[in-house]
Amino acid sequence: MKNWLPIIENELKKYLFVPDMPYSAVAEAMAYSAEAGGKRLRPVLVLEFCELTGGDPMKALPFACAIEMIHTYSLIHDDLPCMDDDDLRRGRPSCHKQFGEATALLAGDGLLTKAFGVMAEAQLPPEIIVEAVRTLSAFAGPEGMVAGQVIDLQNEKVPPTASVLELTYRLKTAALLQAACRLGVLAGGGTEMQLHQASDYAYYLGMAFQIVDDILDVTGNTADLGKPVGSDEANGKTTFISLQGLEGARQMAAQYSTKALQALSAFPRSEDLAAYTEQLLTRKS
């Protein structure tokens, strides 16, 4: 899986160059946040599912970079004082701490907008590009990731039930992972059945991933995570740990991970991705 990382990093740098222009501050903020590292889980999933469905992953690179831009914009906005008000992201100052709140807001807007222009550059059939744009818009927009963030903010005022918390995680985290997997299948020329199977895998992966995030907020440390720990409890935030206890949350994450692997098994030659999925359950960051 690591073979994809330098390819993704180089392509992102190509799209996020900083011009010598009066608006270079926002371009610098965009590059600062997008090039700060991370697991690159979403673009990796795009390339993996493209390959698993018989396509050329290099042709899916614009889709992969676009979804990382969308993910990065969401992190910039999540960290703003009006949202989670976090000062640290990926081991260094959040975008608004480094560049100011207004520039950070515009950097997020810039990444969101640029993502769809990048997708349009893909060397793929026009109908595939159109469907990919529709897919990413749906899963990242007001009925997907944005909706999840809205519910997450509401949960701070009214403690959610388990079903509302599941909906929050499905929209806030799993939706963009579903988009990534579906974009890969589209780029690879996959079938409608494969789109559904990829979505199932991504849903279960997203649920496990978010629950592990909650666990790490309790058991991890700032050095490994690159962001503050203990913020959920300090802010009185409801998670599956507060609902089920730490051991119960671990069992839930394991169950979702098992279901993700079962869905993934429908794809031949998915052993590497299966191993990667298992590693995400035991990750330290």
Can you put this structure into words, describing what you see?
The mean pLDDT is 93. A hairpin with a 2-residue loop joins strand 1 (88-89) and strand 2. The protein is 71% helix and 1% strand. By secondary structure, it is mostly helical. Helix 3 (41-52) packs across helix 9 (162-187), helix 7 runs antiparallel to helix 9 and helix 13 (240-264) runs antiparallel to helix 14. It has 14 helices and two strands, in the order H-H-H-H-E-E-H-H-H-H-H-H-H-H-H-H. The protein has a two-stranded antiparallel sheet with strand order 1-2.
Measured between the Cα atoms of the first and last residue, the distance is: 17 Å
Task: Give the tally of β-strands.
Answer: 2
What is the overall silhouette? globular
What Rg is obtained from the alpha carbons, in whole angstroms? Answer: 18 Å
Q: Unreliable stretches, pLDDT < 50, 5 or more residues?
A: none
Largest sheet geometry: 2 strands, antiparallel
Strand order, sheet with most strands = 1-2
Derived from helix and strand composition plus strand pairing, the structural class reads mainly alpha
Q: Percent range for helical residues?
A: over 70%
Specify the number of helices.
Answer: 14
Summed over residues and divided by their number, the pLDDT gives a mean of: 93
What fraction of the residues are assigned to beta strands by DSSP?
A: under 5%
